[in-house]
Amino acid sequence: MKRINFKLITIILFLQIAVIYCTDKNELSVTIKGNDYSGVYEGMIDISLCCEAYGIVNGWVAFDFSQNPPVILYDGVFYEGISIADNKLLNIEESEYSVYPVNTFGIFGENNGKYGLWYNYRSDDPEYDAGKTFLVKTGDISQAQSLIDKYRKEKDRFDVFFAKLKNYVIIKDYNGISSLVNYPIEDNSCSQYNNKSNKNLINEKEFASRIKTIMASSGTDFNTDFTYNRIEDDAPEFSGGIYVVYLGGQVHIKEINNEFKIIALLCYG
Length: 269
Description:
The chain is built from 5 helices and 15 strands. It has helices spanning 6-34, 141-170, 174-178, 190-195, 204-218, and strands spanning 39-48, 54-64, 71-74, 77-79, 82-85, 88-91, 104-111, 114-121, 131-139, 185-188, 200-201, 228-230, 243-246, 250-256, 259-266. A hairpin with a 5-residue loop joins strand 1 and strand 2.
């Protein structure tokens, strides 16, 4: 009869317990790391330009995954419809980003010992083919939340301004619209180009007359089609951080001395 080697059995049992323990510890460490995706990331990102074109700039993104839904602040612009699965940053809504595999914005990981995000970017600039860029994590969740809070307060202030502007637009109060302008203002609208009218508007009377002409010629129903967009802070062809509305052409708005003002009239939409 064979003798049972109790010493060998003890060693095997110990090794099995050690494997289970280590596996649990590794899974726990992954979970903890997953919660650490929140933060501020910096590097080359794509910026939407005119006419469905994209450019590449050195910008930043702030993530707060402790919120439900997650809060994404992309170089000053709030993004919606974004989720995280494992270490992948995903777009959960149908959009032009579906050109990426499974709507993947990027994958969190490491590069040369630095933690960050492998980001899928787009570009129409021949110097930058669409592909991946690495955004280095430069701030933790508290720094991300600080940025998010700052830009939320800015958005709240703009929403108050926009509600006033929208009311003036809907009731066609051109004098009211002109009261929101920073003078003098340069008119680069299509109306100015077509009619060779005065390019520099120096007061409310001149602006009210011009914006009435621009809006009337646009053929737009502003009751149903009047929204705004915010341009990223580091957009190359604009003043960073401006807001844009359409009134028969682009109207640019910026905060000056803690007050939002219309600062430019442009031809394109």
